[in-house]
Write a structure and sequence with these properties.
There is one protein chain. The protein has two helices and two strands. The protein has helices at 26-31, 49-64, and strands at residues 4-6, 33-35. Strand 1 (4-6), helix 1 and strand 2 (33-35) form a beta-alpha-beta unit.
Length: 79
């Protein structure tokens, strides 16, 4: 069974804040699939906790039952 990591840390969604938010390295990300990391520009977006919750629920729904979805929600993919 493949391993999937879903970050519970809402600050890790922001691009460019790798050290501040203690994000996993690219090497660590290559070991298993990571979601909800580095997809929001902190200088442009008005991203809220409600946005995080909505994306997280969409991703969780996909991970639980992928046959109901055509693909992983775009905004929850890691780089």
């Amino acid at each position: 069974m493949p391993v999937t990591y879903f970050t519970p840390v809402s600050l890790q969604v922001y691009k460019g804040l790798d050290i501040i938010t203690n994000k996993v390295t690219e090497e660590e990300q290559a070991q298993c699939r990571h979601h909800m990391i580095s997809f929001v520009d902190p200088l442009v977006s008005g991203y809220t906790v409600v946005d995080f919750r909505n994306k997280a629920l969409s991703l969780i729904s996909f991970l639980i039952c992928p046959t109901l979805h055509s693909e992983i929600p775009e905004s929850s993919r890691s780089n």
